[in-house]
Amino acid sequence: MLSMYLKRLLTQTEWNDAFLQYMTQVGQMHANKSGAGSINVDYIHINVLFGFMEHLLVDKLWNTNGIEDKNKHGMIIAVNKLFWIQNDIFSMQYRASSNNKSFSVQSTKVNPTCCFPLH
């Protein structure tokens, strides 16, 4: 499934509403928001995978000979933007699902006179 997603993501020539909706649906599926088709993957694992995939693509582009530096620079910027947009779309789905859960926050006591506790 990942290879199908990457193929569509990397070969898409026009980022129209239909394509952005597709990315949103994939994010919903992983954030356990699409009902029976949900697979519920923790966001930390999705984010690590995105970072690893971006690293692989940037490294491959950087080390490819025969591409002018100007073009290589533009390609690396494009890959970076692609992963930022993808991450934003996915994180919106996870934020929306976490807003439906209640969390308890414990307050900690801070010593206002010292930035670094020396215990």
UniProtKB/TrEMBL annotation:
**InterPro entries of this UniProt entry?**
Globin-sensor_dom, Globin/Proto
Question: Entry's Gene3D superfamilies?
Answer: Globins (1.10.490.10)
> What organism is this sequence from?
Rotaria socialis
Name of this chain's protein: Globin-sensor domain-containing protein
The chain positions of domain Globin-sensor read 1-96
Q: Name one GO molecular function term.
A: oxygen binding
Coiled-coil region(s): none
